[in-house]
Amino acid sequence: MKKLKDLIAMKQEKEKISMVTAYDYPSAKQAEEAGLDTILVGDSLGMTVLGYESTVQVTLDDMIHHAKAVRRGAPNTFVIVDVPFGSVGVSDSYDIQQAVKLYRETEANAIKAEGAHLAPFIKNVTRMGIPVVSHLGLTPQSVGVTGYKLQASTKETAKQLIKDAQEVEKAGAVMIVVEAIPSDLAKTISNSVSIPVIGIGAGKDTDGQVLVYHDLVKYGTDHKPKFVKQFADFSIGVTALNQYHEEVKAQAFPSEEYTYKKQIMNEVDER
Ligand code: KIV
Fold it and tell me: Which residues bind Mg(2+) (predicted)?
């Protein structure tokens, strides 16, 4: 398993870090078999797996339930688990309890918290020994306020984002995810901090890339953001299901090939 020090070394040696989301045992198993450096149990599971409109409905218990399955599927991969909307930001002691519960029960290697306003939280839980990844730029938990659009696209907001990245690094963040920001800004941020910066919709000059599993294999998704490349088309599952449905109707399935041959009824006394 890659450790934090390995991920930092990869940044220093300019080897890109790969990250994909996973939410269950099979997707995690695939990610590990495929050799991904890191897995993110993203709260995007709200949309991809649970069918919600946004990440806002996802609870701490949802994250724990799914991250435990991911850990079982990928025991040898660095796993990061999202701190979901509204589960911290209450009081220092409550926030620490929530972070400890998430980290301990999931056996993840790090937790991820959205927004630079959580720098004090990052500081507190880092002191407890919990590695925290910060998520800046477009933070999906705040889309009710920001909308899904390019962030930090003015001089002032770009400058602020550079400061935010430096602030979360100072607070103890071990990595930063930057989402939907101009690629030149992402490059500057990556060069201005010593921790790995992983981009999504942030161009090629970050220290690594993350994509949502369901987006990259086109599984159950109707909308394709500009920055998503579909590397496979799992919507072929619909074709398979339809063929199964038709074969059941036509009594073509199960054929002899899929039927146990042993005859028992001549031995059963039906009286
Ligand atoms: O929840 C998630 O999948 C994420 C990625 C978009 C980075 O936070």
Answer: 43, 82, 114
Pocket residue to mutate for ligand 1, from 52, 81, 82, 134, most atoms within 8 A of Cβ: 82
pLDDT in tens, 15-26: 999 999 999 999
Short-list 175, 150, 154, 155, CA closest to 165: 175
60 CB near ligand 1 (under 6 Å) = no
Active site residue 179: yes
Q: Which residue segment(s) compose the domain that 255 sits in?
A: 238-270
For residue 97, pLDDT over 90 is answered with: yes
Residues 224 and 120 in one domain: yes
Whether ligand 1 lies within 6 angstroms of the CB of 134 is answered as no
Mean pLDDT over residues 146-154, rounded?
93
What is the number of alpha carbons within 13 Å of residue 102 lying toward its C-beta? 30
Asked if residue 204 and residue 78 are part of one domain, the reply reads: yes
- Our count of domains for the chain comes to 2
Residues 150, 200, single domain; the answer is yes
8 Å CB contact between 99 and 130: yes
| Range 250-259, long-range pairs (CB < 8 A, 24+ positions) | none
Give the predicted TM-score (pTM) of the model.
0.96
**Which residue matches tokens 């990595």?**
175
- CA torsion sign for 227, 139, 135, 211 is negative
